[in-house]
């Protein structure tokens, strides 16, 4: 036990000035947290655009005509379940358990792909009935907001594949588990953005 | 985690107690499921006074975001999380400015704009 640990265990905390620099994991996590917040600011701008334009359907289909609540509930369930399996996966990463990392992250991946395919089928159905992004200001704002979220999920899935390959080739080095930690933050943050999407876009449409 | 602490010395910002367990993820999941189902129910029911429904949906959404922050992202009020909390507070401030600012400004502009048919008549 080091002197600093002894001091902490005996109750008198080490003065901040004597503790030295924070470990890379903390610094990396904080930096990634700042990135996530700035990403959420981008989504806030898109939410503001949607909130302003949601009524401007230019005589075309309105939000209440287009959106199906049951479809959205299934999408939400997929994303929520994938958030929890991602959490289980990061616990497995922390304990260095390779098999359960693969297992939980594979389930996370499958749920993410299910979410994306549901979203793509919804978009293609809307395009086929002539409700594409060029139809009205409301639909432009809708496709930008929900499409940006879908793009983030797609990038997250690519990242997940890369991380699983890194676990396979590099093992659980501190570097790899740090990246997995950041991936977990990213995935959970996407779920938070989705709460805003389903509340404002899909449930708000039927009020 | 303990190996990392030994390798790099005791450093601030490492909170061994807020890492989360399977149990805490499942508790978070159950809160999130209840809140999600409640907001889907609230949007389609006639039981609630209908002008109050948007406010209820907003409250449920903010509560669920809080649940996700605490149980999934492990944001807490622990002393070593001060930086994260401050960044989060600033993020919420900017988000609020952007969303409500845009909505208020656009509503005012809309209100002050001449109706389109009158505008058309003036152009003739």
Describe the structure.
The complex is a heterodimer of chains A (207) and B (124). By secondary structure, chain A is mostly helical. Chain A has a single domain, classed as Four Helix Bundle (Hemerythrin (Met), subunit A) (Up-down Bundle). Helix content of chain A is 78%, strand content 0%. The longest helix of chain A is centred in the last third of the chain and has 34 residues, at 137-170. The mean pLDDT of chain A is 89. Chain B has a domain at 20-73. Chains A and B meet through helix 1, helix 2, helix 4 and helix 7 of A and helix 1, helix 2, helix 3 and helix 4 of B.
The CATH topology label of chain A is Four Helix Bundle (Hemerythrin (Met), subunit A)
Q: Report Rg of chain A.
A: 21 Å
Amino-to-carboxy terminus distance of chain A: 61 Å
The rounded Rg of chain B comes to 23 Å
CATH-level-2 architecture of chain A: Up-down Bundle
> What portion of residues of chain B is helical?
over 70%
Order of helix and strand elements from N to C terminus of chain A: HHHHHHH
Biggest sheet details of chain B: none
Overall spatial form of chain A: elongated
How much beta of chain A, percentage-wise?
A: under 5%
Counting copies of identical and different chains, the oligomeric state is heterodimer
pLDDT < 50 stretches of chain A: none
Class by SSE composition of chain A: mainly alpha
Main sheet summary of chain A:
none
Overall, the morphology of chain B is flat
CATH superfamily of chain A: Cytochrome c oxidase, subunit III, four-helix bundle
Succession of helices and strands of chain B: HHHHH
In short:
The complex is a heterodimer of chains A (207) and B (124). Chain A has 207 residues and is mainly alpha-helical.
Annotation keywords:
heterodimer, A: 207 residues, Four Helix Bundle (Hemerythrin (Met), subunit A), 0% strand, B: 124 residues, mainly alpha, flat
Compile the SSE list and pairings.
The complex is a heterodimer of chains A (207) and B (124).
Chain A: H1 3-9, H2 24-53, H3 63-66, H4 69-94, H5 98-128, H6 137-170, H7 174-203
Helix pairs in contact in A: 2-6, 2-7, 4-5, 4-7, 5-6, 6-7
Chain B: H1 2-8, H2 22-44, H3 53-72, H4 82-112, H5 116-123
């Amino acid at each position: 036990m080091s002197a600093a640990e002894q001091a902490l265990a005996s109750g008198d905390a080490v003065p901040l000035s004597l503790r030295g620099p924070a470990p890379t994991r903390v610094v990396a996590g904080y930096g990634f947290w700042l990135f996530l917040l700035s990403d959420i600011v981008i989504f806030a701008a898109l939410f503001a655009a949607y909130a302003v334009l949601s009524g401007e359907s230019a005589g075309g289909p309105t939000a209440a005509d287009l959106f199906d609540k049951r479809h959205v509930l299934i999408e939400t369930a997929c994303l929520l379940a994938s958030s929890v399996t991602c959490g289980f996966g990061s616990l497995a990463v922390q304990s260095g358990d390779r098999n359960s990392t693969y297992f939980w992250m594979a389930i996370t991946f499958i749920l993410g792909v299910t979410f994306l395919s549901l979203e793509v089928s919804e978009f293609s159905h809307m395009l086929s009935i002539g409700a594409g992004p060029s139809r009205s200001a409301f639909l432009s704002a809708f496709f930008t907001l929900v499409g940006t979220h879908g793009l983030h999920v797609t990038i997250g899935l690519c990242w997940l594949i890369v991380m699983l390959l890194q676990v396979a080739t590099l093992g659980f080095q501190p570097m790899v588990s740090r990246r997995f930690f950041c991936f977990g933050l990213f995935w959970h943050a996407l779920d938070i953005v989705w709460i805003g999407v389903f509340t404002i876009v899909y449930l708000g449409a039927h009020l | 985690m303990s190996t990392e602490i030994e390798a790099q010395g005791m450093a601030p910002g490492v909170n061994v107690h807020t890492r989360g367990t399977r149990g805490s993820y499942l508790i978070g999941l159950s809160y999130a499921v209840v809140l999600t189902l409640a907001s889907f129910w609230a949007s389609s029911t006639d039981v609630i006074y209908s002008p109050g429904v948007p406010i209820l949906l907003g409250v449920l959404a903010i509560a669920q975001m809080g649940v996700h922050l605490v149980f999934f992202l492990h944001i807490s009020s622990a002393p070593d999380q001060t930086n994260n909390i401050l960044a989060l507070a600033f993020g919420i401030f900017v988000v609020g400015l952007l969303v409500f600012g845009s909505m208020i400004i656009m509503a005012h502009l809309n209100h002050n704009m001449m109706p389109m048919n009158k505008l058309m008549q003036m152009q003739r």
